[in-house]
Write a structure and sequence with these properties.
Blueprint: H1 15-18, H2 39-45, E1 55-59, H3 66-76, E2 80-85, H4 91-108, E3 112-117, H5 124-128, H6 131-136, E4 139-145, H7 149-152, H8 155-159, E5 161-165, H9 171-183, E6 193-194, H10 196-206, H11 210-231, E7 258-259, H12 261-267, H13 280-294, H14 298-310, H15 315-330, H16 336-351, H17 357-369, H18 375-388, H19 450-464
Parallel strand pairs: 1-4, 1-5, 2-3, 3-4, 6-7
Helix pairs in contact: 2-3, 9-10, 9-11, 10-11, 10-12, 11-12, 13-14, 13-15, 14-17, 15-16, 15-17, 16-17
Length: about 475
């Protein structure tokens, strides 16, 4: 057992490691995977190693319990447990495990559970080396990944394994873990008092990540103890090795150090947002941002903008997406939106971050609150579809270039009506090729500026197409 006083001192095993559950009963969250008879429960309950357990891939964000589940299964099961990390292991290591597992099965009747952390870091060749052992039952693979297995795990391995998705821990789960760590002898051993507001702050900062919650708690407890020892006259700052009795006082009668919200704020700089710039969360957040702007929810749009900024997303990437939004989802409903978006991108390029967040926010507010229309976007896509399908035709002769020698002899420009010579500036004239006469690509909405455009466009089409 880890000495709890030592656990509060620098260099000790991290609190998150000390508090790792010893059995599935201690696991917080993931109830959908731990129901009676579920594959994980069956795997942990089988102490004989004789049941036909299936390999599993655990997919979920960091801090949701992938390693915890694997180790809890190892402690509960009668199988041999081998752990590899894809960061350090190679094909040779995998093959050695497979050979040893086959020998253990054939000679001693012992099956092996291979826990492979961060399988998404394995190359295709390394993952191929796992296939014989999984297919022939030499090992039961329990693999963990934070990346979407559909993109990071080879298909043959996926088809031979059961994919289990872990969910982000909710606030109740995190609160349970924090409370347990405060009193458990493996954790803080009751040597600090946690104020309810500080507990709520730690849960909020953790963003569903158990490891982050326990790391924040440990940092806050160290700060609280340090501040208490500094305030106490004549105190050496050492933690009393005698256990606390839960009365809110040390063994010598002095009050326990208290973790307050202020202590948490000083110990933990910011909530480390769950955001992987190269992974699923990157795409999920930008998708939510785009859909929030399109849906005119300015508060949600600013929230996702803040998440991207705080996570260190490239502001140029954000600015490019805002420019696309201005034309794709707003377009002619508010023609100024594109100018605002481009100006914001220029401003970010000119002044940099963190000040660049201000023009970005202004552009996002403008776009989110602007009337919406995707008519221009749909119009160009419809026109492109016709062109790609071969529906084009020759340019009408009166529209062709007539400036080069011999062009007029070919009839180029003959009969062209110059609009500026007409009193209203619009003349009846065919502009589309013959096969596309009467085609309509742009259909304005009745939103914002497009309401006026719609009325004007109807008149323009009647004149140009000779329908007046």
């Amino acid at each position: 057992m880890v000495d709890s006083a030592q656990g509060l001192r620098a260099g000790a095993t991290p609190l998150a490691v000390r508090m790792r559950p010893r059995s599935l009963d201690e696991v917080a969250g993931q109830r959908h995977l731990l129901t009676p008879g579920s594959p994980l429960v069956a795997l942990a309950a089988d102490r004989t190693g004789e049941s036909g357990a299936v390999s599993v891939i655990l997919w979920g964000p960091p801090g949701t319990g992938k390693t915890t589940l694997a180790q809890a299964i190892a402690r509960s099961s009668g199988r041999k447990f081998v752990e590899l990390s894809a960061v350090t292991a190679g094909v040779r290591d995998v093959r050695q495990v497979m050979e040893a597992a086959r020998a253990d099965r054939d000679l001693y009747g012992v099956s092996t559970v291979l826990f492979l952390d961060e399988i998404h870091r394995f190359t295709k060749a390394q993952q191929d080396a796992l296939l014989p052992g999984v297919e022939n039952g030499w090992v039961i693979l329990v693999a963990a990944t934070t990346e979407n297995p559909s993109f990071s795990v080879i298909s043959p391995l996926l088809s031979r394994s059961l994919l289990l998705t872990l969910e982000t821990l909710d606030d109740d789960d995190l609160a349970l873990l924090v409370d347990r760590a405060v009193v458990d002898p493996r954790g803080l051993g009751g040597r600090v008092e946690l104020a309810p507001e500080a507990r709520a702050a730690i849960v909020r900062l953790a963003s569903g990540d158990a490891r982050r919650a326990l790391t924040a708690l440990e940092a806050a407890s160290t700060s609280a103890i340090s501040e208490a020892s500094t305030d106490a006259s004549g105190d050496t700052g050492e933690v009393d090795d005698e256990g606390a009795d839960g009365s809110g006082v040390e063994a010598d009668g002095s009050p326990l150090p208290v973790i307050t919200p202020e202590v948490v704020a000083r110990a933990v700089d910011r909530a480390l947002l769950r955001y992987d710039r190269d992974g699923d969360e990157h795409y999920d957040v930008i998708s939510a941002f785009i859909k929030s702007v399109r849906g005119s929810d300015v508060d949600a749009a600013l929230h996702y903008l803040a998440r991207m900024i705080e996570a260190g997303e490239d502001p140029r990437f954000i600015a490019r997406r805002i420019i696309v939004l201005a034309s794709e989802d707003i377009g002619m409903a508010d023609p100024t939106a594109l100018g605002v978006a481009v100006a914001a991108a220029d401003a970010v390029q000119y002044i940099g971050m963190p000040e660049g967040r201000i023009p970005l926010a202004q552009a996002v507010v403008h776009l989110a609150t602007a009337p919406k229309s995707n008519a221009a976007y749909l119009g160009i896509d419809a026109a492109l579809a016709d062109v790609r399908a071969g529906r084009a035709g020759r340019v009408p002769k009166h529209l062709r270039d007539a400036h080069y020698p011999g062009a007029k002899r070919l009839g180029h420009g003959k009969g062209y009506a110059y609009p500026h010579d007409d009193p209203i500036g619009v003349v009846p004239q065919q502009y589309l090729p013959d096969p596309l006469r009467g085609a309509v690509y742009y259909s304005p909405t009745e939103h914002g500026n497009e309401r006026e455009v719609s009325s004007r466009l109807a008149k323009l089409r009647r004149i140009v197409r000779g329908e007046r």
